[in-house]
Amino acid sequence: MAGLPFDQREGVIWMDGEMVPWSDANLHVLSHGLHYASSVFEGERAYGGEIFKLTEHTERLHFSAHTLDFEIPWSVDEINTACNQVLEAQGLIDAYVRPVAWRGSEMMAVSAQNTTIHLAIAAWQWPSYFDPEQRLKGIRLNISKWRRPDPQTIPAKAKAAGLYMICTLSKHAAEKDGYADSLMFDWRGRVAEATGANVFFVKDGELHTPTPDCFLDGITRRTVIELAERRQIKLNERPIMPEEMEGFEQCFLTGTAAEVTPVSEIGPYRFEVGEITRTLMEDYHAEVLPKG
Asked: What is the bridge-based pairing of β-strands 235-237 and 206-209?
């Protein structure tokens, strides 16, 4: 199953209010979302049969759609219920869940006020985002030539499909050169994030992470900040310049897919997989497990 193309898998997908066979969950080639990136999505993870922070994800899905000037015609509660129904229908306990909303095919131009808004939810098994053996030693990142844009030029707070184009380009270039991922700077030349995860650094027992003013303030990012507060680990959320990486001791990424992943290398900079990183990895693993 893991190696099958995503259009050839078995099971069902929730689409526009009903379960449909996986192979029938299609959209027209002239859908506005395909041509003009009028599409938003979420990446969610289920542990032990429960989707971690499901409501936060669904609320962000609604926010992202509203930011792209459309409203999803299903409430947060209805979408939450549908996500859980998909998980059950697929017989999955530990899984990845992907809700996606997009504009339909009624209009084919930049304007799209009269398009139908569609919503689909799929779930599938998803192993570790990065190679498990490499992940424990710390993954290697290069530095992307692409930069996160000025938030006055893009809807930076939305989890919108079009914003990931430069992430794909960056990750492809990194993997071509033997790296696991790529670190992106922002338009000012400051450290921003990896292609699909936020970044943290450790120095002298304190955490340092870039201010999320032009990229997503990830749900996993916020969770890890809460975990650090419980441990009374001081957090410094601030602008970080690339040359500061020379003085950082540890580094890790956070994201729904990445979870908490140590980093051993970013371009010319080297890091150890130290105690704070390992502690937050363990704390995050305990946090996501169903309670009771």
From this structure: parallel
**Other beta carbons within 10 Å of 164:** 16
Is it true that domain 12-124 has CATH number 3.30.470.10? yes
| Residues belonging to the active site | 159
pTM here is 0.95
Closest CA to 45 of 98, 7, 100, 91: 98
Provide the token pair at 61.
């899905």
Annotated domain spans of the chain: 12-124, 132-288
Query: What is the fold, at CATH topology level, of the domain defined by 132-288?
Result: D-amino Acid Aminotransferase; Chain A, domain 2 (3.20.10)
Tokens of 170: 């960056």
Which pLDDT tens digit goes with each residue over 54-107?
999 999 999 999 999 999 999 999 999 999 999 999 999 999 999 999 999 999
Q: CA 24, CA 21: separation in Å to the nearest integer?
A: 5
- 108: Cβ contacts below 8 Å, ≥ 6 apart: 30, 32, 35
Sign of the alpha-carbon torsion through 75, 81, 84, 85: negative
Residue tagged 């693993």 (tokens): 285
